[in-house]
Design goal:
Beta-Lactamase, alpha+beta, about 575 residues, 5-stranded antiparallel beta sheet, 17 strands, single chain, Heat Shock Protein 90
C-alpha cells in the first residue's frame, strides 16, 4: 500500500471512525435513555389507569353486591310464581341505579325473571362464551368487556358484569345477575390516561382479545403478545416489537382483574425522534472529519509524500549509478524540503567519492599490470634470446632456433608497454607461439586448433586473456591424460559481443575442484610457474576493463572435458 494511502487511512481511523463511533454510542445511549424514560412514563400511566379502572368497576360491584342480597331480589328468584308488581319493579330499579348502568337482568335457575330494556333468554345466556367463567366464579363478579362479549362488532358496545346469585341463608345458587354498563365508563377511565402523541392504551384479556382501547380502534381483534403466554414469567415490563406492522415500544402491566392486562403502545419513531438531532449531528461531524481528512491529504500529505517519493526515486537512480539531483522549486521551509536538499548534497558527494575511488582503483590496477609487465627487463630478454638463436643457427639446431623465435615473439607481446588493448589476431598469434613452445615439450601429447573469422580479426581485446586459459587447459586437462588431448580455440560473435571458447577433451572437474582451483589460482602453482596470470586474474581484468557483464564462464563435469568462454565487447581499432 502506498504511503499516502496509509496516512489517509490512519487519519480516517484516528478521526473519522472515532467521531462516528462516538456519535453512534451517543445516539444509542440517548435512544436507550428515551426508551427507558418512555417506559417509566407509561408504567406510571398504566398504574394510574388501572387504579381508576378498579375504582370505576368497584362502584358497579358495590351496587350489585347490595342488590343481590336484598329480600325482594332473593324472593323473586326463589319463588317462580313471585309477582313483580309496579312497586316491586320500582324497588328493584332503585337498587341497581347508576348513571353508567344501561340495563340489567335477573335469571332464576330456570328462566329470565326480570330485565330492563331487553334481555336475552336463559338458554342464550348459557351459550355465551363467558358464562362458564361466571359459573366457576361462584358468586364473584365477572367482567366481560366490549371486545369479549361481541357487542363492539355489533355497533352497540357495552361492558357486562355477571355473577351467580346465592341464597342469603343457605348459599345455594338461586340465579344469575347480568348488568350492562355503558362503555362511557371505560372511556372516562382511558381518556384520562396519559399517552404520547399517536400512542395508545389497550385493555387485553389472556386470550389475546382487545377488550378496549383508548383510541376506540381494533376493539375485539386478536393480538399475539408474548407476555400472554403461560410460559412468560415476567408479570410486567416492556420490549420493542412490531405492532400493526409498525415497530413500537410495548409496555404492559397486569390489571387488578386477573383476566386482563393493560398495554401501552408507542411507535418507536416517536421515541427516536428525540434522538434524531444527535444522530444528525454525529453524521455531520463525521462528514466534516472525513472532509478534513481529505483536505489534510490534499494540502499537506500529498506534498510531504511527493517529497519522500522524489527522494526514493533519487535513491533508486543512485543505486543504478545515475546521480541526478532532485529538482526543488522553492527554498527549504520544512523537514521535507530539507530532506530533498540533504539528499542532493549527499548524492553529489557520493558521486564525487565514487569517481575518486574508480580513479584510484584504475590507477591501482594499472600499476599492478605495469608491475606485472615490468618484472622482466625487455632489452635484456631480447638480447639474450637473439644470442641463443644465433648460437643455435651456427650449430645447425633448427628446433632450438624455432623455439627461441616463438619465445621471443611470445615475450614481445607479453611485456610490450603502453598497449593494453591489442587486435584479436595478435592475441591469438601470441597463443599460437605459446602452443608451439609447448609442443616441443609435450611432443605428440596434444593437438590444437585456432579458428578466427576474418571479419573479427581487427576487433581489439585486453591482451593476455586467452593464453592463461590455454595454459590451465594444458596443465590441468591435457597433461594428466594417458591418451592424446585436443585444445580448441574458436572465436565467434554474439550480437554486440565477441565470444572466445577454449575447449579441451580432458577429464574435466567437479564444482568443488573448480572452487579450489579458482581460489588457489592466485596462490601461484609452483609446479608449473612462479608468476602466472590465472583464471581469476583474467576474469577480474576483463571486468575492470569492460564492465561487470564481461568476463569468464566455466562449464565442466567429470569425464566430459571443459569449456571456458570469454566474453568481450566489439571494439574496433
Amino acid at each position: 500500500m502506498k504511503l499516502r494511502r496509509k496516512i489517509l487511512l490512519a487519519i480516517i481511523l484516528l478521526v473519522f471512525i472515532p467521531v462516528i463511533a462516538l456519535g453512534g454510542v451517543s445516539y444509542y445511549s440517548f435512544s436507550e435513555a428515551m426508551e427507558k424514560k418512555s417506559n417509566d412514563f407509561y408504567w406510571i400511566s398504566l398504574l394510574e389507569t388501572d387504579r381508576k379502572l378498579k375504582f370505576a368497576l368497584n362502584e358497579i360491584t358495590t351496587i350489585s353486591n347490595s342488590a343481590i342480597t336484598q329480600q325482594s331480589v332473593q324472593q323473586m328468584l326463589k319463588q317462580p310464581d313471585y309477582a313483580v308488581t309496579y312497586d316491586r319493579r320500582q324497588e328493584i330499579n332503585n337498587l341497581i341505579n347508576h348513571p353508567m348502568i344501561a340495563s340489567f337482568a335477573f335469571y332464576s335457575n330456570d328462566q329470565l325473571i326480570y330485565h330492563t330494556d331487553g334481555g336475552m333468554e336463559l338458554a342464550e345466556l348459557r351459550r355465551q362464551d363467558w358464562y362458564e367463567a361466571v359459573v366457576k366464579a361462584e358468586g364473584r363478579p365477572v367482567w366481560v368487556g366490549p371486545g369479549e362479549n361481541g357487542s363492539a362488532s355489533s355497533g352497540a358496545p357495552v361492558l357486562i358484569q355477571s355473577r351467580v346469585i346465592k341464597d342469603y341463608y343457605s348459599l345455594e345458587d338461586i340465579g344469575t345477575a347480568v348488568i350492562y354498563v355503558k362503555p362511557d365508563l371505560l372511556d372516562q377511565v382511558f381518556w384520562e390516561a396519559a399517552t404520547l402523541k399517536q400512542g395508545d392504551i389497550l385493555l387485553v384479556n389472556k386470550q389475546g382479545h382487545i377488550v378496549f382501547t383508548k383510541s376506540g380502534e381494533h376493539i375485539g381483534e386478536r393480538t399475539e403478545f408474548p407476555f400472554l403466554s403461560d410460559s412468560y414469567t415476567n408479570g410486567k415490563g416492556y420490549y420493542v416489537d412490531p405492532y400493526l406492522d409498525e415497530k413500537s415500544l410495548i409496555t404492559y402491566s397486569p390489571s387488578h382483574n386477573k383476566e386482563w392486562f393493560l398495554v401501552a403502545i408507542t411507535p418507536s419513531k416517536l421515541i427516536s425522534a428525540e434522538s434524531v438531532s444527535i444522530r444528525n449531528l454525529a453524521l455531520i461531524l463525521g462528514l466534516i472529519s472525513l472532509l478534513s481528512a481529505f483536505l489534510f491529504d490534499r494540502f499537506f500529505v500529498r506534498r510531504m509524500v511527493r517529497s519522500i517519493i522524489s527522494a526514493v526515486n533519487g535513491m533508486k537512480r543512485v543505486k543504478q549509478g545515475i546521480f541526478v539531483p532532485i529538482p526543488s522549486h522553492h527554498a527549504a521551509e520544512d523537514e521535507t524540503d530539507l530532506l530533498i536538499d540533504g539528499f542532493n548534497r549527499m548524492s553529489s558527494q557520493i558521486h564525487e567519492l565514487i569517481g575518486q575511488v574508480e580513479m584510484e582503483q584504475a590507477r591501482k590496477k594499472e600499476a599492478e599490470l605495469q608491475a606485472l609487465v615490468a618484472q622482466i627487463n625487455p632489452h635484456f630478454i631480447y638480447n639474450s634470446l637473439e644470442s641463443i638463436n644465433s648460437m643455435a643457427v651456427l650449430q645447425g639446431n633448427k628446433d632450438i632456433s624455432k623455439m627461441v623465435v616463438s619465445l621471443g615473439k611470445l615475450l614481445r607481446i607479453s611485456i610490450s608497454e603502453h598497449h593494453e588493448l591489442i587486435p584479436l589476431h595478435m592475441e591469438l598469434e601470441h597463443v599460437q607461439h605459446y602452443m608451439r613452445i609447448q609442443k616441443f615439450r609435450f611432443e605428440e601429447k596434444f593437438e590444437y586448433g585456432i579458428e578466427l573469422p576474418d571479419s573479427l580479426k581487427h576487433y581489439v581485446t585486453q591482451k593476455l586473456i586467452v593464453q592463461p586459459i590455454v595454459e590451465n587447459a594444458l596443465y590441468h586437462g591435457i597433461e594428466p591424460m594417458e591418451d592424446s588431448g585436443y585444445i580448441s580455440i574458436k572465436v565467434s560473435e554474439d550480437h554486440e559481443d565477441i565470444v572466445i571458447d577454449v575447449e579441451d577433451n580432458g577429464p574435466g572437474f567437479d564444482p568443488e575442484t573448480l572452487i579450489k582451483l579458482w581460489n588457489t589460482d592466485q596462490g601461484q602453482l609452483k609446479k608449473y610457474r612462479e608468476n602466472g596470470v590465472g583464471l581469476k586474474n583474467v576474469h577480474e581484468r576483463l571486468r575492470i576493463r569492460f564492465g561487470s557483464r564481461y568476463g569468464l564462464m566455466i562449464c565442466s563435469s567429470p569425464g566430459h572435458g571443459s569449456l571456458i568462454r570469454i566474453r568481450i565487447p566489439k571494439i574496433l581499432t
